UniProtKB/TrEMBL annotation:
Gene3D superfamilies: Cupredoxins - blue copper proteins
Extent of the signal sequence: 1-24
Taxonomic lineage of the native organism: Eukaryota, Viridiplantae, Streptophyta, Embryophyta, Marchantiophyta
PANTHER family (UniProt xref): BLUE COPPER PROTEIN, OS07G0570600 PROTEIN
Family annotation (InterPro entries): Cupredoxin, Phytocyanin-like, Phytocyanin_dom
Name of the protein in question: Phytocyanin domain-containing protein
Alphabetical keyword list: Disulfide bond, Glycoprotein, Signal
Organism field: Marchantia polymorpha (Common liverwort)
Length: 164
């Protein structure tokens, strides 16, 4: 019985560790709307209501024949300049890793799309290390992807508990 209690404790600790950070969350750009052109959907508003931290992934889902994703400079973003870009994605299911605390600028470079299909998102300094405050608004969204991190950890804990 004592070892069962101990195993349970280990699993609880593992779950706690997985939930408390270290695992970036996946954020689907536009939510259910995904990445498309729709004059009634404001991506800037979506971005303002979305919290991202270093280590998170922005997931762009779209029809790759109709749209693409570009990260651009602030000036290119403001003027919808599509002559150049920092980076481009075009698979239709792209994962963009947030790897620095800065403001990211995204747009679709298909003709005319930038008018509605663009947003900037600020990644606040220190957001990767300040857990509760930055995470609260997305707590329900971030839980599911993180369960992926809990499973392997629990298996590890179970395995090691078997050798005790
Ligand atoms: Cu587009």
């Amino acid at each position: 019985m004592a070892s069962t209690t101990f195993t349970t404790l280990l699993i609880a600790l593992g779950v706690l560790a997985a939930l408390s950070g270290g695992y970036g969350k996946d954020v689907i750009v536009g939510g259910d709307q995904q990445w498309t052109i729709d004059p009634t959907f404001n991506y800037s508003e979506w971005a303002m209501q979305t919290t991202v931290a270093v280590g998170d992934n922005l997931i762009f889902k779209y029809n790759s024949t109709d749209h693409n994703v570009r990260s651009v400079t602030a000036a290119q973003y403001e003027s919808c300049d599509t002559t150049s870009y920092i980076q481009q994605w075009e698979t239709g299911d792209d994962s963009v890793v947030i790897n620095s605390t800065s403001t990211y600028y995204f747009l679709c470079s298909k003709p005319g799309h930038c008018l509605y299909q663009k947003f900037s998102i600020a990644v606040p300094a220190g957001s990767a290390d300040s857990p509760p405050q930055a995470e609260t608004p997305n707590a329900s969204n971030s839980l599911l992807p993180r369960l992926g991190g809990v499973l392997p950890l629990s298996v590890l804990v179970l395995l090691s508990a078997g050798f005790l």
